[in-house]
Automatic annotation (TrEMBL):
It comes from Bombilactobacillus bombi. SUPFAM superfamilies: P-loop containing nucleoside triphosphate hydrolases. This is DNA/RNA helicase. Residues 111-263 form the Helicase ATP-binding domain. One of its GO terms (biological process) is double-strand break repair. The keyword Methyltransferase does not apply. Pfam families: DEAD (PF00270), Helicase_C (PF00271). It comes from the Bacteria.
Length: 432
């Protein structure tokens, strides 16, 4: 009986795949045929061509939301209404830290946004402590019995948020859901999940927070935008968080379509390190650029730890290899997304086992190392847009004692992206 009750609860707010035989009257077909050989998927709302995605002459499937399991025209869906069946603790916030005056001001604004059920963007520079600013609003929503989703495009961010949110709200149910590794879903007042997983919910959340709304794969992905819109209730609060809002958000702000709060100071109150630009004038084939080598040698002698960002896996391997020839005693290695030892290498760097890490953009965001200088090799590469360069620069100066870490962009030309990144950092530093 107890288990059945829990099972029924677990369905609350969910979109569940079922068969034709299910006697539930609210079931509806997963895929609906449209004119001209087209069909619409009712889980993700994407439209595709039947003959392109046919398995047999009678059977076709949706290619867009395949990652959640194959949905065919023989499947049915049931959307279970959200019950908001929570035991609400009187004092949900168990975090006892303090906010800076700037953080506090934004925290109050967010409580107001939640009261008014609005959409709002928080533009908070890297290392400013944006998670803590959400706590008062979350506590307010919990007391009101609201169901809350904290979502991010990437699994790493969810994994990092999960223990922090659990620690800050010890008496509230918090569950974690994403496609990697073991994670057990249960009906909880707070859900931390990747944006993809929101497709498993329908009109479930009163408050949804979308972290890193400017990052891959959420950006320019209609499926994931749809996932967010479907997962929230009709009357909802939606908070976007970003350190580097994409031009689309900035345009919405400029046109008055989206309200926002700006936190341009790090929690320690110091400026963001301003990148220096170094023009590369000569690049000889198959050897390390002299200017780059000179900068690295200086850091090596000072025993200053650093990250060197490059634009491809090949470059990461190549430069690390050349460095090994030129400076055999420099403790360094390379890392990239496909590296099976990625996790261990990053941890070893964190533990001071390496002085330097040559990396692709995988370490562009979401990682915090203390007292790190940052260099970008070939910053004029098309792989580095302004947002990426700002995020990379944000890896430096994370602690109060070392807020003046260096950031250097090496490039053959001063691109628009480099210009925009440097200007934006300068502007954020000037704003009071
Ligand atoms: Zn679909």
């Amino acid at each position: 009986m107890g288990d059945n009750l829990q099972e029924t609860k677990d369905l609350s707010g969910r979109l569940i795949v079922t068969t034709k035989d299910n006697p539930q009257s609210q079931k509806f077909p997963a895929l609906i045929s449209l004119a001209n050989d087209q069909f619409r998927c009712q889980r993700c709302q994407m439209v595709n061509c039947q003959s392109t995605y046919s398995i047999t002459s009678q059977l076709f499937y949706c290619p867009e939301c395949l990652v959640l399991g194959r949905l065919t025209n023989q499947d049915y869906l049931i959307a279970y209404p959200e019950q908001n069946d929570f035991v609400v603790p009187p004092h949900p916030l168990t975090w006892t830290g303090t906010l800076t005056p700037k953080q506090h001001a934004i925290s109050c604004q967010l409580c107001q946004v939640q009261m008014n059920k609005q959409e709002h963007l928080v533009w908070a520079v890297t290392g400013s402590g944006k998670t803590e600013m959400l706590f008062a609003m979350l506590a307010q929503a919990i007391r009101q019995g609201e169901r809350i989703a904290l979502t991010a495009p990437r699994v790493d961010v969810c994994n990092e948020l999960y223990p922090r949110i659990k620690a800050a709200f010890r008496t509230t149910g918090v569950s974690l859901l994403h496609g990697q590794g073991a994670n057990h879903y249960y009906y909880s007042q707070i859900l931390i999940c990747t944006v993809h997983q929101l497709l498993k919910f329908r009109a479930a959340f009163d408050l949804l927070i979308l972290d890193e709304c400017d990052s891959y794969p959420y950006v320019n992905n209609p499926l994931l935008h749809q996932a967010v819109q479907q997962a929230v209730k009709k009357r909802h609060t939606l908070i976007y968080l970003s350190a580097t809002p994409s031009p689309e958000y900035q345009q919405q702000i400029a046109q008055g379509q989206l309200n926002y709060s700006l936190l341009n100071r790090r929690f320690h109150g110091h400026d963001l390190p301003e990148p220096q630009f170094r023009l590369i004038w000569r690049q000889r084939f198959n050897c390390l650029n002299k200017q780059l080598l000179h900068s690295i040698t200086t850091l090596y002698q000072k025993q200053q730890r650093f990250l060197l960002f490059v634009d491809s896996i090949k470059q990461a391997e190549f430069i690390s290899q050349l460095l090994h020839q030129e400076l055999p005693n420099l403790q360094q290695t390379f890392v990239h997304a496909k590296d099976p030892l990625r996790g261990q290498k990053v941890q070893a760097f964190r533990d001071n086992q390496w002085q330097a890490l040559v990396t692709t953009t995988i370490l562009e965001r979401g990682v915090t190392f203390f007292n790190i200088d940052v260099m970008v090799w070939q910053a004029d590469s098309h792989r580095f847009n302004a947002q990426t360069l700002i995020q990379i620069a944000g890896r430096a100066g994370r602690s109060a004692e070392h807020s003046d870490n260096q950031v250097i962009f090496f490039a053959k030309q001063y691109t628009l992206a480099i210009d925009q990144a440097i200007r934006q950092i300068r502007r954020l530093n000037q704003d009071e």
